[in-house]
Model the fold of this input.
Amino acid sequence: MINALSGIMKKMAGVMLIAMMLVTCCDVGGNLFGHPVLGSEELVSLLAALLIALSLPAAHQENAHIGVDLFYMKFPSATKRINDIILCVIRALFFELMAWECFKYAQDLKRIGQVSAILELPTYMILFAVAFGCAVLGIVIAVEMVTLMKMKPDAYHGRLPATLKSGGESREAKRDEKLSDREPHDDIGRGK
Done:
């Protein structure tokens, strides 16, 4: 169910990206004829906030974030698993706390009637969307943690690829398996 929700949010984020593009194109076209779109910068900024909030869970599931693993690849499987479980706990708690704080702040903005400067759009709605995106991301991370805890320590090679989270095999899993089997400097001296 959480994967379906994440997929829907990803599609909504795509709609926000298209909307940003259309607003920008209309503004540029309007500028050519001396009629720019009123509040286009503000609208694009609000759409960008929605885009980021809605794409967070899918980006995490697809491992679209940046990770530096200089030492991580040298850890044994059991150590990688324990490390990732601890990180999942920290990340899940962080994003659930962030969701709660955004939700409280959005309620405050709604109470005082805060609106955007030019278009006078209610800004609390954006914060509710950010809170929702963070809450869903926290749940996605918690599901990942449960999946990690159910795995056998020696079967884990580090970072669950997106399709393994849903039960399939992926290119990332095969690549990571090949990389973990190589010696650190296999390519040196072979002209690669």
Observations:
- Residues 166-171 have pLDDT under 50 and may be disordered.
- The longest helix spans residues 77-112.
- Helices lie at 2-32, 40-61, 77-112, 124-150, 162-165, 171-181.
